[in-house]
């Protein structure tokens, strides 16, 4: 079953930024994350998506006190696209179990340096994160990281790829591509040629999983139309 995408518009009270609610029921809240918004509170103290979503639910349903909302997966701050929250602890637990069992499918769109990238491939590495610098590198002492991709289009030494992510390591897509000389466009951490002010060309395009209560297979997508994606043909 594919749930039809329905867009509501939620205007934030602080900052005036518009957030798209892709889908909502008694158990799930699916949002279209804007670029440069953290998933949860960090050292910057900038408004984060989890707090925004809780405030939205609090106001919509006139809820007193704290609002429960479970963060079941994360997107890096500069990454945009579809993300899923759980409105109940039962839903959060079942979605987390799906992620652990690799039953929570995540597809991304990215634009990276071409440099002779194969039309399709599987990347398998071990990745290690430095807790002091928050940087990730390929290291034999790291954790397994696995993804596959296919090329959708090429132009001006840039390539648009669709990525199936099988493990959810920190900075995984960014590091696995940059370590092979295919750095993501605008990646301020792992692409030495990125320019100040560019936003990384990485977008959470599609998420598919079993509804935590009904067990129906559901899928949500989020298209993207920003630089440099709009220079290449999108799916």
What's the structural blueprint in terms of helices and strands?
Blueprint (H helix, E strand, L loop, with lengths): L7 E4 L6 E7 L3 E6 L15 H12 L9 E2 L8 E7 L2 H12 L4 E9 L6 E11 L4 E4 L4 E13 L2 E8 L6 H7 L23 E9 L6 E5 L14
Parallel strand pairs: 5-11
Antiparallel strand pairs: 1-2, 2-3, 3-5, 4-5, 6-10, 6-11, 7-8, 7-9, 9-10, 11-12
Describe the fold and architecture:
The protein is mostly beta strands and 235 residues long. It has one domain (8-231): 2-Layer Sandwich (Pseudouridine synthase), CATH 3.30.2350. Helices cover 13% and strands 36% of the residues. Strand 2 (18-24) and strand 3 form a beta hairpin. It starts with 7 loop residues before the first strand and ends in a 14-residue tail after the last strand. The model has no long low-confidence stretch (mean pLDDT 90).
Summarize the entry for a quick read.
By secondary structure, the chain is mainly beta. It is about 15% helix and about 35% strand. A hairpin with a 2-residue loop joins β9 (about 145-155) and β10.
What's the level 1 CATH class?
Answer: Alpha Beta
User: How many individual domains?
Assistant: 1
Largest sheet: 12 strands, mixed
What Rg, in angstroms, do the CA atoms define?
Answer: 18 Å
In helices, the fraction of residues equals: 10-25%
* Count of alpha/pi helices: 3
Q: Do you know the CATH topology?
A: Pseudouridine synthase
Distance between the termini: 21 Å
Unreliably modeled segments: none
CATH architecture: 2-Layer Sandwich
Structural class by SSE content: mainly beta
Q: What's the CATH H-level superfamily name?
A: Pseudouridine synthase
Query: Strand portion, in percent?
Result: 35-45%
